[in-house]
Design a protein that fits this description.
The chain is α+β, with helices and mostly antiparallel strands. 20% of the residues lie in helices and 20% in strands. Strands 1, 10, 11, 12, 13, 14, 15, 18, 19, 20 and 21 form an 11-stranded mixed beta sheet that branches. Strand 18, helix 11 and strand 19 form a beta-alpha-beta unit. It starts with 8 loop residues before the first helix and ends in a 7-residue tail after the last strand.
Length: 640
């Protein structure tokens, strides 16, 4: 078995806090003073104290990286390996900015710097809607000093205009070095920008598209300038993670490759550096002596071993047998969540839960075909479905009880009234909306009597599109049964994912030809983007649909107030009062208009042995790997 190499961490946990792994703990023993030495006495025996074994942490993964160059074509870089080498995630947000920086720019909001610049017709800008564009006639833009939608102008002339350029300054901490001893400078961050641009690195693709310039101002300072009119909530994401110019600068970008033979020479600035790489078996890292927090005793391990699972190898058994100390989120399928939860309850493992996908029941608020009866056009009907859905209990039953309740666009949102289950209140709303239970039998669908735009006698019978996935089937069946109590008829229509989520106009969901559909959107930070429900994203043929049939807003929901609030939220720096106010307004609008009913957050699990500490997901980043330097085991644990 690939993960069965000797694990030294249990022995390593006997080391005292702060003890260096390869340093002997005692000098040679002295001769006992109580036994005098004479000529006839046997020679004293000197017994050296044993050298402590290196403390090693073993992380088991299913997928091995192709290469250790982060911009290598087709690369899927494991998050824990990236954090071990570079100490941060490649998609750093302003709240998870690499710790090699002195401070976070743009927090508070007043720290953002805008510089007015002349923009000529045909030059690239970000327009008033937040889209990449060029200055041209009929394009709406924000003139200098305008930071909201209500002051945007339409360009009508052929002269230069003044627009604001968002400027951010990043300063590296003093005294940073690469693992090979070379100084880490602003030039290395600039080099990363140059490589990302040359190789069109997907990690930074959106940032590159909106970057006007990236400059090293001195040895420790870089400056990022955005396209005129651009600002978002992620200043930290504009910093390009340093790469070693001194080691690779002479190579053409396309020729850079760090395979197994070169791995030990890879300069790093994270807590570890590469010791050896045996492809298909293991990658061994060791302490980086030049890590900027080394003087604080970090990381807590001398070695970090990444080992790859063989096909069919059981990750849970490997963890319980001690062959692995930690399993990444990607290693635990949802079908095993229940068994892992039982192991946690028996104190045999520790778990970290991360919100991964936002699961929602979508309503077709505005069918593309105007002849299709708009049974869900009234907000009262959608609100009644929310009250009758039983979703507060549904979340508790999904994924072994580990699903996180979704109350709005974020998993931490608390909006009054949107998560409660109250069939009586739901039935009353349906009566008010003109859908009556004429036969006084809640098991049969209600019929329209005075519902706006609906012929009298039309049954409240809906079709719910979903896939054959077991979890989705369970959700669909529960929703069907719960809604029947209020006289809402639901037929579950199970189809292959590629069929019911096909692009419009042919696909039923994104062609806006459905009534109800279960959809999930990946949102690793634990927050569904409000842009999913802006009018810009409504799928429809161009020019009726700004993105043609490529829009994500399958509900067809369009609200100018929601659009403006969403843009204000996306442009406000996270954590500021402006961001919090916009977020609350968004949640209120969403819960009132309800283009989709949030059901729960699909979880992802990471698991560790029971004596592991430091296993927690940082809410700001939705990630646990930022804590890798403080991970520890057993009696030596120094983190909660």
């Amino acid at each position: 078995m690939i993960c069965t190499a000797a694990i030294l961490s249990l022995l390593g946990c006997q080391a005292k806090p702060g003890e260096a792994g390869f340093t002997p703990v005692a000098a040679l023993s002295e001769t006992p003073s109580a036994v005098p030495f004479t000529a006839t006495s046997p020679s004293p025996t000197f017994v050296p104290s044993p050298t402590p074994l290196p403390r090693e942490l073993t992380i088991c993964l299913a997928k091995e990286p192709l290469n250790l160059f982060v911009f290598f074509p087709g690369q899927v870089f494991p998050a824990p390996l990236f954090s071990a080498i570079y100490g941060s995630q490649p998609t750093a947000s302003n709240l998870n900015i690499p710790s090699i920086l002195e401070a976070q720019p743009g927090v508070p909001e007043s720290a953002a710097r805008f510089e007015a610049a002349s923009v000529l017709p045909g030059e690239p800008i970000v327009d008033a809607s937040g889209s990449s564009n060029v200055l041209a006639k009929k394009v709406r833009y924000r003139p200098a000093g305008c930071h909201a939608g209500d002051c945007a102008l339409e360009y009508t002339g052929d002269q230069a205009v003044q627009m604001d350029v968002w400027t951010l300054t990043f300063q590296l901490k003093a005294g940073l070095h690469w693992s090979d001893g070379a100084a880490l400078t602003a030039s290395d961050s600039l080099y990363s920008f140059e490589l990302a641009k040359a190789l069109r690195a997907g990690t930074y693709s959106r940032t590159l598209e909106r970057t006007l310039s990236y400059t090293a101002l001195d040895e420790r300072t870089v400056e990022w300038r955005g396209l005129p009119g651009f600002k978002d909530s992620d200043p930290g994401g504009k910093f390009f993670m340093p790469l070693p110019r001194h080691a690779w600068g002479a190579q053409a970008p396309a020729d850079i490759s760090i395979d197994a033979g070169d791995a030990a020479n890879l300069p790093t600035f994270g807590p570890f550096k590469v010791r050896s790489w045996n492809p298909g078996s293991e990658l061994i890292l060791e302490r980086n002596p030049n890590y900027f927090q080394a003087s604080e005793g970090l990381p807590h391990f001398d070695r970090l071993a990444f080992r790859w699972f063989a096909p069919g190898e059981n990750a849970q058994q490997a963890l319980l047998a001690g062959h692995c100390d930690l399993l990444d989120f990607s290693e635990i399928p949802s079908s095993q969540f229940s068994s892992y939860r039982k192991l946690q309850q028996a104190s045999k493992v520790k778990l970290a839960v991360r919100p991964a996908s936002w699961e929602a029941l979508y309503f077709n608020v505005q069918p593309f075909d105007s002849k299709q009866p708009n049974l869900l056009g009234q907000a009262e009907v959608r609100q009644a479905i929310a009250l009758c859905s039983g979703r507060s209990d549904l979340a508790l039953r999904m994924f072994g009880g580990l699903a996180l309740p979704a109350d709005g666009l974020g998993f931490t949102a608390q909006v009054s009234g949107t998560a409660q289950t109250d069939p009586a209140a739901g039935s009353a709303l349906l009566d008010k909306a003109g859908w009556l239970d004429l036969d006084h039998n809640p098991a049969t669908p209600r019929t329209a009597q005075s519902a706006p735009g609906i012929p009298a006698g039309t049954p409240l019978q809906l079709t719910l599109l979903t896939s054959a996935d077991a979890d989705r089937q369970a959700s669909a069946d529960a929703l069907r049964d719960n809604l029947a109590v209020c006289g809402i008829g639901v037929t579950v229509d199970t189809r292959p994912v590629e069929e019911y989520l096909a692009p419009g106009p042919d696909g039923p969901v994104f062609g806006r030809k459905f009534s109800l559909a279960l959809l999930a959107w990946s949102a690793p930070s634990g927050e569904a983007p409000c842009s999913l429900f802006t009018s810009l994203e409504v799928p429809a043929p161009y020019p009726q649909g700004a993105l043609d049939w490529g829009g994500a807003n399958a509900a067809g929901y369009a609200s100018p107030v929601f659009d403006q609030t969403c843009q204000a939220y996306e442009e406000a720096t996270a954590g500021t009062e402006a961001s919090q106010q916009a977020r609350q307004q968004l949640e209120t609008l969403f819960s009132q208009d309800l283009p989709a009913l949030p059901l729960y957050w699909q979880p992802r699990l990471a698991a560790a042995r029971s004596d592991f500490c430091g296993l927690r997901v940082e809410p700001a980043a939705g990630d646990l790997w930022a804590n890798l330097p403080i991970f520890d085991l057993g009696e030596a644990c120094r983190a909660p």
